[in-house]
Amino acid sequence: MAYLVPACQGLLAVVLLASSASKLRSGQALRAFAATLAAMRLVPGAAARPVASGVAAAEAVTAVALVAPPSRSAGFALAAVLLAVLTAGVAVVLARGTAVPCRCFGASTAPLSRRHLVRNVVLVAAALAGLLLPAGGLPLAGSVVALLAGAVAGLLVTELDQITALFAPPHHP
């Protein structure tokens, strides 16, 4: 059970870093994310750009806090709050029935769906597990392996839409 904490660290750090990087890689990417927030009707149009910048910055800060040992607990707490807010946003969009693409990790054309909601709930659970479970006292090698396993899981999470598309039935217009 103790290995779950570094695994959650790796998972969340990779997911949040990838999400932040996808938004901050260019002005166009950040504007596209802001436009998506406005289309979701989660924030007023004028606030979309500052909110988009704030979300991307919060993701980056949280990812760094997760991997720096002195701030690991704060990183898990920040991740839990940030991911809970993002999960609530996905739930609102789904409840409204708005078909808006998920810009979580870049320029995906896949609209938000229940899988995105489930993904986010699992990420919130990982943040809470990392925050609440006891950590420490693990052999270094075991901690590194758990961290790397979590990071690999994080990479898979960031590619969820593409992985799902591989197994979806072909779409014929």
Would you kindly provide a written description of the structure presented here, covering whatever features stand out?
This protein is mainly α. The protein has helices spanning 4-24, 27-40, 48-67, 72-96, 114-132, 140-158, 160-167. Helix 1 packs across helix 5 (114-132) and helix 1 (4-24) crosses helix 6 (140-158). The N and C termini lie far apart (48 Å). The model has no long low-confidence stretch (mean pLDDT 89).
Quick rundown:
The chain contains seven helices and no strands. The chain is mainly α.
What's the SSE blueprint?
Elements: H1 4-24, H2 27-40, H3 48-67, H4 72-96, H5 114-132, H6 140-158, H7 160-167
Helix pairs in contact: 1-3, 1-5, 1-6, 2-3, 3-4, 4-5
Question: What descriptors fit this protein?
Answer:
173 residues, 7 helices, mainly alpha, 73% helix
SS-based structural class?
Answer: mainly alpha
Would you count the extended β strands for me?
0
**Annotation field: number of helices:** 7
Gyration radius (Cα, Å) is 16 Å
Distance between the termini: 48 Å
Strand residue content: under 5%
SSE order, as H and E? HHHHHHH
From the spread of the alpha carbons, the general shape counts as: globular
Whole-number mean pLDDT: 89
Uncertain runs with pLDDT below 50, 5 residues or more? none
The multimeric state of the shown protein is: single chain
